[in-house]
Fold:
Amino acid sequence: MTRLLLAAIFAAVLCANAQASPATREVPLDRMAFTHPAASLSFEDRLLFEKGRVIFQRLWLPAPVFGMQRRMDGLGPHYSASACARCHIRNGRGSAPDTRLGLLRMALPVTIAGENGGAEGPDPNYGRQIHLSTVHQHRPEAVLAVTYAERPVALADGTSVSLRAPTYRLTDLGYGPLHPDAVVSPRIAPPMIGLGLLEAIPEREILALADPMDRDGDSISGRAVILKDEASGGERLGRFGWRATQANVFDQTARAFADHIGMSSFVLPAVWGDCQPAQTECREAAHGADPHEIETYSFHMAVLYSQQVAVPARPEADDRVFVEAGCAACHRPRFDLPPTEDGPARIIHPYSDLLLHDMGDGLADDAGREWRTPPLWGLGLTKTVNPDAGFLHDGRARTILEAILWHGGEAEAARNAVVNMSADDRAALLAFLESL
Ligand code: HEC
Ligand code: HEC
Structure:
């Protein structure tokens, strides 16, 4: 009897696995590869996705605008870019910063360092971000200069690779000095594929991978970011952003409108975006359409769009070297998503654990050494989608190999494995990464 029951359960599990479909989509692997809706979207949701695309690509205008375009105003007064798509290029990542080429669409989040590495809040003069642009010739917050120093790294087989180490300098601060404990953390926009799938990973699966005290002794800890939810007082897992500071796409979208573009929404209704009381000219400037600069309907479409960009399907490739080098300890190949009301169980291959890891001094900025493992799906299409794209949180790595050689801290052993690899194994590793 028990045996029969077990057999039945086993069959049911097999069946569920058989139904679990990969969540990728066959699309042309060209520069538009990251612009297609997920295959699972219903016909109705596809129409909403297309509306979201318009919002994501719209160039917002300085207020006031009258007539037909009045719903498009509200930009700034201080802003980093005038559209989502200006930073997330064709839904891929942002361009590597380059002062000479004028490619400087970075986010410059600023926090006051608190005790124990915690953040105490925004800068009293500048807010949550430093913005390099303003509308109507308001005083800019700062000018950013980036310089790179080349640092050669010798691989065991005699190959030499040069890493470029960035130095960021903020000058011409327009609103007084930064707080003495302010730390600025320059970042480029990450790619926009598969974000709804990352949201659907059950929280307990990510928490189960965390090992902050490294109890299993593999030198890889992994820390889950637990965010306080101000509205409910509850706790949520951070998943998005280079340091997992946002729990979901909805929250990140609200912050993006407010902090990067300076648009108010029903979530963050301040019409002056991130401007602080000391920035009076900004606070008193004309603002956009009422009651919110971004209409609530449009806001929801932007969220849906951001969640539902398809992950392009790729051919199977040999992951032997990737696994042997220890990459999969953080870049977790697979999660199984449970069935939902809208669809069956699915298997995803994001190559991330969504946890924070100490990546050593080389990648550290003033705000710390920890970074969230970025998903590697779509990695091989990075330069196809945006030829100016860089790898890592600030785009400093020009190639995938450079990105690997920047790894340190918990990932030191994996990096050293790559340094000491035969040329054949390294080629196999890079071929695998290019296949993603
Ligand atoms: C100034 C450049 C810039 C603009 C404009 C911008 N973003 Fe981003 N976006 C970023 C950066 C940088 C991050 C990473 C944030 C972090 O590390 O905290 C990000 C992260 C995200 C993420 C999380 C992705 C992930 O994998 O963690 C989403 C979703 C997102 N942005 C949506 C939007 C939307 C929607 C808009 C328009 C309303 C927008 N962004 C406008 C730069 C930008
Ligand atoms: C201890 C965890 C850990 C291990 C082990 C690890 N990585 Fe990473 N990886 C990260 C983190 C965290 C980042 C982001 C660092 C940053 O942006 O500053 C990253 C970034 C990357 C990037 C750049 C991704 C992007 O979107 O720009 C690539 C490529 C990469 N890793 C490949 C590898 C390979 C290949 C290995 C094995 C040789 C490996 N990693 C081992 C945690 C890890």
